[in-house]
Amino acid sequence: MVVPLLLAALMAQDPGARATFSSRADLVVLHVSVVDREAGFVAGLPRDAFVVRENGRVQPISVFQQEDSPVTVGLVVDNSGSMVPRRDAVIAAGMAFARSSNPADELFTINFNEEIWPGLPPHQRFTSDHATLQQALGRAIARGQTALFDALLSALRQLDLGSQPRKVLILVSDGGDNASRAKFDHVLEAALRRDVVIYTICLADENDREAKPRLLRELAKVTGGESFTPRSNDEITPILERIARDIRSSYTIGYAPPPGTTARDRRKVEVDVQGHEYRGYGVRARSLYIPSGSSRVP
Q: Were both Cys, which of 150, 173, 186, 236 would link to 180 (CB 3.0–4.6 Å)?
């Protein structure tokens, strides 16, 4: 997410102010999750517990928030033939995710095999209604090949239409791609030019030579999400419920990009917690971003 500098200054004076986010040219905004040694989410840390570095240099924090605010969430669901044994479990997990999420979240689905289609009706881009979401998840038959990268680009464009400032994608797939026109590099650049957190759930069979779990892990890591590889269908619902808790427990931290930042550069970002009392805590946030500017992504 991104916040104008003027608003950032006001929020620094009034931590209770609600953010209205706009262009990345003004502020780089990170969504940060903190976990303890038992992998439980840690809430209530103060601003001065965090340190942010861009390309190795410490950056002053201009915006700091932690609140359970609504998000725009896309469920990107593989419906290729290899997903037949997983389909019912994925639908059930998607509904468990919705029940664990903020009731005001904007939800949408992108279904794909070699084709890509929205689960919601043509006149409806988003929903907060669980019955409508269940219909959207069920509006497909698992068959055909896999256009994973094309589907992710479609979902990123759909996120741009959402009204909530925080944007999340959750990809459920076997990780293979044998039908896309786009390449992984297109997807990665598109994600780095947006303020989006991507979670990936790789359901690949161990004998599937087309599966690419490494690419899914990379996409989740650089955007500040997590990557999961469940061993059975029974693990899919707990994973989606954990993702919902992660979204609702995250911190929002913003800083002004350093002078000289250009749209050609990939900028490396690191977020840590400092202080003896926070020793042993793990921090997760996006590790790269590309400043706003013209994009070559199809």
A: 150
User: Residue 216 and residue 220: Cα distance in Å, rounded?
Assistant: 6
The domains located in the chain, with CATH, are 71-248 (3.40.50.410)
Q: What is the pLDDT of residue 81?
A: 86
Assess contact for 182 and 153: CB atoms under 8 A. Answer: yes
Query: Do the strands 282-284 and 267-273 form a parallel or antiparallel pair, or are they unpaired?
Result: unpaired
- In angstroms, the CA 155 to CA 169 distance is 8
Give the model's pLDDT for residue 207. 65
CA–CA distance from 160 to each of 46, 121, 157, 296 (Å)?
31, 18, 5, 17
> Which strands, in side-by-side order, build the sheet including 282-284?
63-65, 251-255, 28-35, 282-284
229-242 pLDDT, tens digit per residue, is 999 999 999 999 99
Q: Which of 31, 27, 20 is nearest to 199 (CA)?
A: 31
Amino acid type, 196 = V
pLDDT digits (tens, 9 = 90+) for 3-40: 444 344 434 444 444 444 443 447 899 999 999 999 99
Kindly report the pTM of this predicted structure: 0.89
